[in-house]
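[STRUCTURE TOKENS]
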Amino acid sequence: MSAVPREGRTSRPEVRLARRGFTDPGTALRLLGEPALGGLEQDSVLLDALAATADPDLALLGLSRMAEALGADERRRLLDTLTTAKPLRDRLLGVLGTSAALGDHLARHPGDWHALVTFEVRDMHPGPEDFLAALRDGVRRRGTADAADALRLGYRRCVLAIAARDVTGSTDLAQTAAELADLAGATLRAALEIAGEEDPEAARACRLAVIGMGKCGGRELNYISDVDVIFVAEPAGDAEEQQALRAATRLASRMMRLCSDTTGEGTIWPVDANLRPEGRNGPLVRTLASHLAYYQRWAKTWEFQALLKARPVAGDADLGREYLDAVTPLVWKAADRENFVADVQQMRRRVVDSIPSAEVDRELKLGPGGLRDVEFSVQLLQLVHGRTDSTLHSPNTLQALADLSAGGYVGRTDAASLDAAYRFLRTLEHRIQLYRLRRTHLLPRDEADLRRLGRSLGFRTDPVKELDRVWKRHAMEVRRLHEKLFYRPLLDAVARLAPGEAGLSPQAARARLEALGYADPAAALRHLSALASGVSRKAAIQRTLLPVLLGWFADSADPDAGLLNFRRVSDALGATPWYLRLLRDEGATAEYLARVLSAGRLAPDLLLRAPEAVAMLGDPDGLVPRGRAGLQQEVLAAVGRAGSASDGVVAARSVRRRELFRTAAADLLGRLGDDPSTAVDAAGEALTDLNAATLEGALRAAVDGWQATAEEELPTRIAVIAMGRFGGHELGYGSDADVLFVHDPLPGADEATAARAARTVCNELRTLLAAPSTEPPLLVDADLRPEGRQGPLVRTLASYAAYYRRWSHAWESQALLRAEPVAGDAELGERFRELIDPLRYPADGVDDADLREIRRIKARVESERLPRGADPTTHFKIGRGGLADVEWTVQLLQLQHGHLVPELRTTRTRAALAVAREAELIEEEDAEVLDAAWVLATRVRNAVMLVRGRPGDSFPVDVRELGGVARYLGYGGGHAGAMVDDYRRTTRRARAAVERIFYG
């Protein structure tokens, strides 16, 4: 078989159509050959015009359906005009290739193609009155048709013309959105007129104004969107107020139904009045005085933000103006409200949190880098600076952005980038909605839909890839600018590197910082000036970093502390070449530093004592706890290099300080575990390892010091036994180290001499670890020893054995449940463990007398040890359902059953609780409740130390400190009350379990 010539293959009709962008050339050929389009299959002008559309297949199908629906004469008129008049050809085919819904409309109402023919000036840029005239004309000429259907048809004809101007580039995004808003206003006016004609008595009894809100009010409406409104009414004539309100409510309700109801001609759009005072729970219509009373007394911040867009669009124009004149001054006082910053941050978080995770990567409006980021940023800046600058009062986003730029409130380059991104994203949103005329903000997944979208935006080489690339670039730019939009002008204001350019005044800069949560804006400006002023390379890098850092600080509970700490770190490290380079080049490092510096006092205080620890934030493994073996090796090496006992302990404390920062930073950044219980265990383990290694080093230093002074070998061996939470591997950041000291004289040594030496060494260890220093102290508490403070600090193994054999109490056996050797002579430590095992795991369990004694002591602790004025429902340690409740309950189970269940012989509370559950010593539900309460109380206790820099067993009274604790626990700003409520709820359930299990 001979090959087909190349020119023969490329000249085939299917190939020619494929090269013009048709994806189904066979169907296209069939449609072009049908009688309705007879004679057009060879019309290259028409084919080229189809090829220029977003979807040539869709455009041809729409044209075929429309032609079939026309009578013969009208069809010929259409086709003749189509082939000879380029404006109609571009408009009609452009619409048909973009919108299947408008194609359906033209198939049902093919005569509406005439709406695209005339080209007078008012047809190119119609105003509200032109739209209203067109709608009125359609309703007036409806004949026997229902008024609602006539209104829908007139509205759809107007949308058809708007879309035609849009897709052909006759109007830009701003003009298109303004026309859609003007059409919405005209539709509301026409619907209200119909309602008035249907109920003339109501129309005579009231003056009703319709206030457009949201995008309708801002003249930036989408093709398909709820139209947000507020209704305000006053009596007309002799009508009473209540009579007028009832009449206005009837008119408003009917107007809403005329637009929202679905009829044979579909629907227009929902009219949403939920932005009114009290939302859907409030009356649909209020008087002006009622509106003002609500806004002056009850309105929330978001309601004033919504009023930025308010604009009278229908009804009584004079009343609409009165409403606007009355509420506008209130809008510009919103930023003075006490909770303005927290409210604004909460609104943004609520929006982001409401997006389904499966859709966040396709969400144009609400997702990261989406339209809401732009609108939210612009509105916030308007509220902050519009108080003193009336040029910023525009309800339109793009106009407001231009005004902010002109006034120096937003950098010119940033404003231009944001303007371009917003226009692209809104245009993309319009194209998505046009296809089916459905309300959506999601980028489609289907390849054909993406291809059509890309072509509609001018991407022709590879529409899908080009669309994805440009969209992501704009979204990334919006996200980047959103994060620093508020902050870069602040730096320009303090640096003043571009004389003559409009910028923030000092007053405006302070106002912005105050609105963003800085309690001392004057001090914040001083810090910014110190960091960013000048022409040095260091200042230039700081000006690059600070806009983003300020945003991270502002998202914390204490922005002022974050900025102050950053300045102090920068002052200390500014001369080192690696510091700013690390923050600039390692993207995550700067964020980690900002979050650590603004999360509380403990981590920044630790960092500021040795700022070079910032480097570990840039190391991928820098925040991983090191483990006891590695720490002990480093500590012992440092002690060995020291020249004295005091120097050796200082070296050990220095390592401890650095590692405390490592653990605290990892905890604050969520690097210790994916869930709270894992993170709590990891923190407890890391802090236990750290204190054990420190004690090992301090003991070695004290022994070396004694031997250097005495010029002989220490005549005894010493072991350190961890007790309490130390022995349980459950230390918190503010925990003391509870220990027992045990010694064993060397063979042949005098026991009295050995005892004195051991006492001297242990006292020296405690003194040096607690001595005033730049390093944080480690308080070593030995009060759990036999006879408490009255007994000797250190005993021999034999002395412990004699005491426990003769004098031991039930509570001491209970305390020994947590005993674990951690430092010193390992063999001696194991002998001590063997000594106490029969005491803490008694062969016959707990007898009735010991059980009564343990319960008596617990009840006494609850009644006598709770600090005066403390709330028993929120005291983490002794309070209801707190740490003591859970630990005493678990320890009682260990005393009762440890001799029978070997797995219970652990010093760890959660591990023992899990074993008790598996052994069916406790109900599974009770075990879960107790575990949850213990984990929560431990987390809150740790959070208090991290935030305040000092330990505490109750929630902080200071609002900022309480907010910091809430953020550590995962609650957003303004949710501290919910945190406390959740704590009480959890511990209340735990206390109920304790009552059943512990008290019986």
About this structure: The first strand starts at residue 206 and ends at 212. The two ends are 98 Å apart (CA to CA).
